[in-house]
Design a protein that fits this description.
- This protein is mainly alpha-helical and 139 residues long.
- Helix content is 82%, strand content 0%.
- It contains two helices and no strands.
- 0% of the residues are buried.
Length: 139
């Protein structure tokens, strides 16, 4: 905190002894020590709180980044399934095969939609601030 050398402390002690006298100097030194201790504890507590808030913010940011990556991956998988379903439509000649592949594609798409909604619903929201994932949702 402050950089006091031995000589500075000795000068402060001699001046204190001359000003306060030998009876009051020990009480004054004790009072100064208590105040310095309180100040150090307060500063230390503030540093811990700031550090904890920064770590929490980093975790929130990491969580939001992972949520975006997961949303993008699910959206891409859904698009791939829909592309495969569209590619199967003209390739099949029989109506039963076409209907079956359409049902499979629709089922897969609905499963992916359900998974995407489940992930979005389970995303933790900060109670003291709005969740950034609400702004990043795409229709």
């Amino acid at each position: 905190m402050f950089d006091f050398g031995f000589f500075e402390i000795l000068v402060i002690g001699v001046v204190g002894l001359l000003v306060l006298g030998p009876e009051r100097l020990p009480r004054a030194a004790r009072a100064v020590g208590l105040w310095v201790g309180k100040i150090k504890r307060t500063v230390s507590g503030m540093q811990r709180e700031i550090s904890a808030q920064l770590e929490a913010e980093d975790l929130r940011q990491t969580l939001n980044d992972q949520q975006k990556k997961l949303d993008d991956s699910l959206r891409k998988a859904k698009q791939d399934v829909e592309r495969i379903a569209e590619a199967d439509k003209p390739a099949t000649t029989s109506s039963t095969t076409s209907t079956a592949s359409e049902q499979h594609a629709a089922s897969a798409a609905s499963h992916l939609d359900d998974a995407l909604e489940t992930v979005r619903d389970k995303a933790p929201a900060s109670p003291d601030a709005e969740s950034p994932t609400k702004d990043s949702k795409h229709p």
